[in-house]
Fold each of these.
Amino acid sequence: MNNRITTLAIETSCDETSCAVLRDGREVLSNIISSQIDVHKKFGGVVPEVASRKHIENIDLIIQQALDEAKVTFEDIDLIGVTQGPGLVGALLVGISSAKAIAYALNKPLIGVNHIQGHICANYIEHKDLHPPFTCLVVSGGHTYLAYANDYIDYELIGRTRDDAAGEAFDKVARTLGLSYPGGPLIDKLSKEGNPNAIDFPRVYLNDNSYDFSFSGLKTAVLNYINNIKQKGEQIIVKDIAASFQQAVIEVLVDKTISLAKERKSNKIVMAGGVAANEGLRNLMKKRGQEEGMEILYPSRLLCTDNAAMIGSAAYFNYIKGYTSDYYLNVVPNLELK
Ligand code: KG4
Ligand code: ZN
């Protein structure tokens, strides 16, 4: 199969069992995603032990489906990539154990991938001409990072959340509003009908020079607002609360990202992670980016949320930079972006 690299990638960090086959770092031959959302919905969030068990039930099937859809066999695989962290320890272990077994049986290199790097690399799949450097905003259910990409796998961490992640804030506020899990997409949808200026929720900038974020105060402000309205016996307008909350989150995300890009004289902003699927965030970033003459990029919705294709892309770029893992590769539930 010429000298291009065919990667088999596995992602099991949370509630999606996913396996993908990629040619080099940007071409997806298959990307099978089996979501457990319906299983966890009735608990209002992901139950780690249930997630691990579901991954075990699904993983072999999903790997076979990914190979079949890509029209390749194990013999065609040159490289095995797998999420090492961050994520749920038991869930990650299922993916890592499978990846190690395959790498050992095929005698092919194994790459442990940082899940956050993976989210960013989804952009290399989506935008075939994208090259570093760029300014980067990663907004997922567990993480909120502002970074500068010096190279494909070399990220300078500039800012982070000091408490809740952006996606976590979306999910918690959604729960308060009686919406189901995951709440982010539902708040996004409701916001289109609501008035973003109806309620003046706080925008938390911390001090002037900080690129860090904080969303837990905003979450409390929403809760206090709802309790207050209820006490007064007034009616809660869910769509207005959703739209006003979303506006408070995205204004801060966009302001800080644009400021960093300006400071670095960078005219390319890349967004990644589940919250990068948010239409309000995409639109505001594009509007502000256009005013500043900056290019704004993000992956398609499917590649924003967890999937193995993004892990395959990151595995490839790590591999060509000379990084490989050995069979002692272990999960790192709190792995940081680096
Ligand atoms: O990146 P991801 O799939 O998983 C993690 O690595 O955490 O992100 C999931 C998060 C959830 O919090 C979900 O509510 C949020 O992304 N999310 C959204 C949207 N789609 C997913 N948040 C706001 N608007 C959306 N359209
Ligand atoms: Zn993720």
Note: Residues 14, 119, 140-142, 167, 170-171, 182-185, 188, 273-275, 277-278, 305-306 surround KG4 (ligand 1) (CB under 6 Å).
Amino acid sequence: MTSQTSLMQSAAFNWINGEPAPTQEHLECRNPATGRLITPLARGQASDVDAAVRAAQAAGPAWGARSFEERADILDRIADGIEANLDVLAAIESQDQGKPVSLAKRIDIPRAVANFRFFAGAVRHQELPSHRMADALNFTTRSPVGVCGLITPWNLPLYLLTWKLAPALAMGNTVVAKPSELSPLSAAALAVICKQAGLPDGVFNLVHGLGPEAGQAIVGHPDIKLISFTGGTATGVHVAGTAAPMFKKLSLELGGKNATLVFADADLDKAVDGAVRAAFTNQGEICLCGSRVLVERSIYPEFERRFVEQVKGLKMGDPADPNTDVGALNSLPHRDKVAGYVDLAREEGAQILCGGEVPELGPGLEGGAFYAPTVLAGLSTSSRCATEEIFGPVVTLHPFETEEEAVEAANGTRYGLSASLWTTDLNRAHRVSAQLQVGMVWVNTWLKRDLRTPFGGTKDSGVGREGGRWSLEFYSESKNICIQL
Ligand code: NAP
């Protein structure tokens, strides 16, 4: 176990070639629930990215030459290291991001452990294809791509970084990563844990800083051969515009505006519970959150009453309090953006069924980026609040008459990430799932993840899939060898 303070303070440096690397300038890393300064944060520049790439290139041949089993053993040791520091990492993630510490303990950190264990197992057990011809044998190998650039957002910091890092390392690549400057602390802690677990120096490098500086330098670096980016759609356009002409391998996991569809034949208790969880987990700051709830009109009044009652019961407050359900948003500017959408909804004639305000939470939290869980009704399904990504604790409710109308409304945004569907009619579940223009559908559940399955979106929610064999393929170069018999 390493001390929480020393892990947090490690973000004042980049991490290059297995050791802290100083920068000339610093940013500030603040706790969004209190506004208090946690630590100075390294402000990496293009020269730092270049140094990280050189370290990654130097480490590449030896790491890539190790067997899958050897690399998997190190991944398992990293998982053990994260698990041993679970409470410390959960506290760091909560202070840095604003999420309830209970959520970080239950979801974020265990998932980081699972990501390393899963991809360790995946490469140990992977099967590579071979194709026999009458007079020849084809077999396909997978080799490392080279130096991978991993860029991650602020909402699920360690969860999403490890989702990329584990398969990239497992397939023999070396990495230069940049976490969001708004929640970089768990990434800095991970670098220390990786070293303690025996990951060779230079295999995992971390450059902190701003997107347009350090992030852009990674995307545009000629010796970084692969970019895996998770973040907003507007940034994704920029990343693709830089990386695509350089023929980099590219995965883009972008924004979402996901529908929850509730049919009259649904188990109402489970549907209300699932819809509330889908809307407000992590303050609504998950790309998969169900921020538009479409409800069949015959059950709409009852659904609305029970939904609002349950939302009013959510406990918003200090993320460090183990009983808190909804913590702080990630920053004051983001809180203001969320509040701006609720102002817009008011102008568009919405009814505010609950929330719609900055709450007063008492001593110590006055400077925090809190916004009360908000339920809006009476808006058109094509209104801005019902189609644009708000990415906060704000949900719109809409009645519908027919299945066709529900599907049309669900598909009526530029995004296509996920949907959840609540019905006890199996035929309807199949029929509606097939028509939804998204990468992932949950039926009678939400955010149930099997790491073997493809993860990603359609339309403006991204390009490509990660997860299971899709990650192993993305983080490697396939080569076919054809032998004349
Ligand atoms: P963002 O502003 O797009 O930032 C994402 C990352 O990109 C950050 O590390 C950011 O750095 C960096 N960045 C910004 N400009 C860049 C540039 N020009 N070149 C390279 N990197 C750059 O997104 P966010 O606000 O952090 O995250 C919220 C968004 O992520 C939402 O839209 C959400 O839906 C999406 N998301 C999608 C998924 C998914 O799997 N589809 C999962 C989670 C989140 P700085 O922050 O340091 O400036």
Note: The first strand starts at residue 14 and ends at 16.
Amino acid sequence: MKRKLEQLIFFILCFAMAATLSGCNGGKDPSAKTVGIVMPSKSIERWGRDGEYLRSLFTEEGYNVELRFSDDVLRQINDIQVLIADDVDILIVVPIDGGTLSRTLEDATIKNIPVISYDMLVLNTDAIDCYVSFDNYRVGALQGQYIVDALSPDETEDTFNIELVTGDPADNNARFFFGGAIDVLQPYIDSGKFIVPSGKTTFDQTATPGWSMDLAFKNMQNTLASYYSDGKRLDAVMCSNDGLGLGVLNAVQSDYLGGNTPVITGQDGDTAALQSIRDGKLSMTVYKDVRNEADVTVSVATAILEGKALDESLIGELPAECVFDTESYDNGVKKVPSFLLVPEVIDSDNVDSLLKNR
Ligand code: BGC
């Protein structure tokens, strides 16, 4: 009898210990879990920032983190293969080229490793569980609207010359940025209020492979030489991110003959872009607080590891304002459930106040 009682007490103690260990994470102890994070090259400022935020936030929550920055597509495929072979518990992936990872991620599916597509969408695979990003269409719409507000075409008989410079065709986001911007600008182009002297008004005509700042610089030099050498005034250039905006700005500073400073847009709030806004050169940037994006990603990853459903009900638990969208992001295989954060405009009016406490 006494022996039976001892066995029972032992059993209850074991049960209580197991419950305590697992209680803080819905049945799983984060410290036993490893998160694999794969980012593009650090040569684009924001990926260095995103990677380090994600690493520190996951670490604070008690996860082990394996973080890799890959300079090119083949390296990225290899990095993901290594993380899968290491049996990470969840993968966070920012694809360099959205269409190149389907085969590699099949191995994640085989091993039941969930995958979050972070910021850029991974295409042509059902291996990803969800997408965490900013509202990319809105980013472009903010850039287009900034140009309209700055030039006020509705309040004058004047017409304005504008150009468009957008991002990498391998990045699904680039089409969303362009789509948001052109939806605002197109009515003015159609009505003749905005003229595009280069004639380049489609995504393909205005794309910049690799989001290359150098290429944006050279392309703008060519545009200025070909269409503005007669002294034509350039009023605005819609650039999809800061690197492109700064490349275009350099070309304008060296090769533009007009006396005005054109409105030039950006995105990301890179250090050089913020300085340029303070100096009165770049007009604006669309700021995406990557700490919020990282914060939301940690919450979503934890929800996945706890076996929670990825649906609208999660929104209330997320640490930053988000929209849950199940329609907009079709990756070619499925409509990917998406958590989309809200971007903000920064220009010379709010550059210091908005960033004060961030
Ligand atoms: C990101 C932007 C970034 C661009 C170039 C996009 O997918 O959303 O923030 O500027 O890639 O890296």
Note: The radius of gyration is 24 Å.
